[in-house]
Design brief:
Elements (H helix, E strand, L loop, with lengths): L5 E6 L2 E6 L6 H11 L3 E6 L2 E7 L2 E4 L7 E3 L13 H8 L1 H6 L7 E10 L9 H8 L1 H6 L10 E4 L4 H9 L7 E4 L2 E11 L1
Parallel strand pairs: 7-8, 7-10, 8-9
Antiparallel strand pairs: 1-4, 2-3, 4-10, 5-6, 5-10
Length: 191
């Protein structure tokens, strides 16, 4: 990573213990008990962080719902979704970037931006509400990020536009990009 890049840990990863759900369907309860072999479910929550990449590149291939950020100098792949490594490999994202003649044209956007959109499930209501919108609350903790434009996918659904408006994000602050390969001067990446 570039010497100007940084990573700020906001909250460490932790393991939460939950009881199995109550269900009217005994078959489902039995499946859970067999799968977990006890009456408790342990779930590891990921750490919460804010990172910054100088001269960052982002890619959206095949019109996925979000963008994959990469650092500029060493093409280091950054993500906050645990399954992205497999997804990136299966979809040939890195091959598209690194192995000509398939390398797409790099489009340069000068300035600082914040990547709000992430790949895989951004168009799904559940993932939008629980994984994307909470990133706004992380950004609100830093006054210097208040005016930085947000990179989003071009094809936002009506509920996404409405939720951003309700959260106080003006349309002027949104930079909605289509599939492609982009570079910005500085990219803030909240988990």
């Amino acid at each position: 990573m570039n010497s100007q890049d940084w990573y700020l840990l906001i909250r460490s990863s932790e393991i939460n213990q939950r009881k199995l759900p109550i269900s009217l369907d005994d078959i489902e309860v039995k499946k859970f008990q067999e799968y977990y072999s006890n009456a408790t479910h342990y779930k590891k929550t990921p750490e919460v962080f804010l990172s910054c990449l100088s001269k960052a590149k982002i890619i959206n291939k095949n019109n996925y719902n979000g963008f994959f950020p990469l650092s500029f100098e060493d093409n280091h792949f950054c993500h906050d979704v645990p399954c992205n490594d497999t997804f990136v490999e299966q979809e040939g994202i890195l091959n598209t970037i690194f192995f000509p003649p398939f390398t797409p044209r790099l489009r340069y956007y000068p300035g600082d931006y914040c990547l709000l959109s992430t790949p895989n499930w951004s168009f799904n209501y559940y993932h939008w509400v629980l994984e994307i919108l909470p990133k706004l609350s992380l950004l609100e903790q830093f006054d210097q990020l208040e005016q930085i434009p947000l990179i989003l996918h071009k094809e936002l659904n009506a509920f996404q536009k409405e939720s951003l408006q309700l959260a106080g994000v003006s349309p002027e602050k949104m930079v909605c990009l289509d599939q492609g390969y982009y570079q910005v001067d500085k990219l803030y990446f909240p988990s």
